[in-house]
Here is the input.
Amino acid sequence: MKRALFIGRFQPFHNAHLLDVKRILKEAGEIIIAIGSSNEKNTLENPFSYNERKQMIVNVLKKRQIKNYKIFPVPDLYNDKKWVDYIKNKLPSFDAVYSGNPWTLRCFKKYDSKVEKIRLIKGISSTIIRNMIIKDKNWEKLVPKEVSEYINKIKGVERVKRAYSKK
Here is the structure.
């Protein structure tokens, strides 16, 4: 069975991420979801903690009865080789790396991993969503219902706005 690594920050997990998970699972029997910047929280770029992001993903995948995944934290190490080595040594083995981040793909390609660039969907990104939250726009339409409910429950909107105001 083929195992894929899908790596991202998921700040927050959105509709395009869900489509990516479904597409990746069509190509691989199992998916490892690596939550990057797991050591970051309460900042403008990383407002949600690792555990909050993990819970968002679990809520969404459980609702859709997607079971063949595992989630792991991946901290920022500020050294490309150490970061790739950390992932290869601490996470289960994988056959291919999926990401929309050019830096991530370059890192893994440089250290001999098969890489697959995910198709980005115009108008949907975590950055766009966070900016919509700041501007009181309808961000909820870009995330699964379970994510918007969870963000509201943990007062995530207020946290994103507070991080922006400190900028």
User: Anything to note?
Assistant: Residues 35 and 81 are 18 Å apart (CA to CA).
